[in-house]
Here is the input.
Amino acid sequence: MKSIHATTLLALLALLALLLFVPPYLPTTLVNAGIQMLIAALFATAFNVLAGQGGMLSFGHSAYFAIGTFATIHAMNAVEAIAGFPTPLLPLAGFVGGGLLGVAAGWFSTQRSGVYFAMVTLALAELLHALAPHLSGIFGGEGGVSAMRMPAWGLTFGSSIEVYYLTLFWAALGIALLYYFTRTPLGRLCEGLRENTHRLGFLGYDVHRLRLMVFTISAAFSGLAGALLAMSNEAANYVLFDMNLSAQVVLNAYIGGIGAFFGPALGAAVMTFFGYAVSDLTRTWLLYQGVIFVLVMMFMPAGLFSIGRWWRTHRDRHSPGRLGAVFAGWACGCLLAAAGLVFLVEMLAVVLAQDYQSLLVAGQPWPAVALFGLNLRPGQFLVWLAPLLLIALGVAWVLWVGRRWAALREEYAS
Amino acid sequence: MNVPIVENAAGNAAGNTAGHAAGNAAGSTAGHAARNGAAARNPAAGARTVLELAGVHKSFGETEIIRGVDLALIEGERHAIIGPNGAGKSTLFHLISGQLQPTRGTITLDGRPIQGLEPRVINRMGLARSFQITNIFPGHSVFENLRFGILRRYGLQYNFWRRVARVRRITEETEQLLEELRLLKSRDVLAGELSYSEQRSLEIGMALASDPRVVLLDEPMAGMSREETDYTVGLIRQLTARRTLMIVEHDMDVVFSLSDRVSVLVYGQIIATGTPDEIRANRQVQEAYLGTEVSV
Here is the structure.
């Protein structure tokens, strides 16, 4: 791994400045969304130590996240009575909790690799998922467990913005430490594990132990992310052990790009914001998330982070204006197609819903639907044709830009 | 300098003594002289056995690939294993290095049994190997590949609080090895993007990076040009100066110039062991394997 680029460093500093200085001017809901984005970014980065760098795809990472959350809630309750206990240090409980579970679960799962590893992680997470509701002493049963953030160091932790800064501190520290990890001997060997465990054995390395250590580090930082959720929500429920969260972190990491260190964090931040922005507007947002995932995997398998890489590979030969135009062309085409798809899906969602179906009277035209500020009649041909045309136009546009771009590159090559 | 030809139990006594006598007069090339010097360095008499195979068998299902191999490597010698394709040379290496377990028989390293141990344990006991099919970390730089080989000796493999680049001795040692391998200019190139022969050099380098006392090289020169082969022979000679080397090689010029002793493996059995001259002169070897390839 080469040393960090000056431009990357500048971009990171700018991002950090943005995260530090902008939130006080944002509405509380956005600050809360920011907290969720930071937690997801740390979680995805921790997950990626295992999946992206170590080449071990875990399907059960919610377990370590959730243990971190519960450990922190219990720690909060345990120190509640101690006046002046440094509340900001409580996430360390989640770090330790995730790490301990990581050692235990990792010892089993890292005996195998590939699909078998993934299956063991999945099984262990499901085991906890099935056990958690029955262990109500620890996980609180249906009602879950809750705790209070106690004031410390002159901070009350009563407002979202204070929680935001606490989250930012731990998330940034966690991601920075994980970046540092990639430069240490174990971190380098972690990437060797992905490439060629066979040869590592012949170089004298205990592959199982290396894997276990990497697994534990990933689990501990996942636990730290879970701890931040505990600090933010002051409550936890066994639903956290659900498969959803494990799947979400996989999607986030892959959408961002597991090949780049900051890819998963980017994917997690983008997708969490997407969820925050869209989930209130429509119930079909999970479908859109799925479509995004499929499209990214098909056309941008290295994830969103590969956009930057694409730019860097071509900037020597093409002007920024041209690259920008190509990129904008693709983006416009995608947006057009997306608009058509959203229109179509939302229309279908309304028309196929039970409450709409119950309004239908035999022999009468279908009643109008209010959507996007329009009064649409599902019986009209144009209502269905327009979105299909939009999709077709968008796809054609993307293809056309792609052809132009290929021609430009060929022109340069000859 | 009379290392006796060791006949294996399969009983091929006939024609042996005659072959014996004919040998020493033939061919004294430059490489030959160098080899003789090397042999003088390791007198067989009173020398210590480092690696010993006794009655080693290996079957895959019904098929017996190794059919009773007895072999002793003397400390400091360069020992070549030759034999036709499918004779079991690579299987023999797999058995010694821990990739495979023998069906029967014992393998000892410095008198300690190693058969059936894991490759990493055998490596730590001081035996390293290269692979016939290049077995590197293609997505990592050449430097990183060699550093993987060197790191463990510093006991830093479980370290996650120190920047590896800060450990100067490791960087220096890696760069020195890069230079010896003529790979310094490709230091930061991804190993997967190296030319074939450069990858072969890296393969040898990785076997030597863990600083073993016994090195097993499996066809290190396969696919190299004449010039690259010549350089690599010199390199192997230099890098294995204070080690015991066991090498599988098809290039007879290399075999006869590099090795102190040669063993001939045919159908899973060693039919002869001796100095290059003795092997060249061995009629049975000529019949079984060398044929017209080598003019005696």
Notes: The two ends of chain A are 33 Å apart (CA to CA). The CA atoms of residues 106 and 212 of chain A lie 6 Å apart. The mean pLDDT of chain A is 88. The first helix of chain A runs from residue 6 to 21.
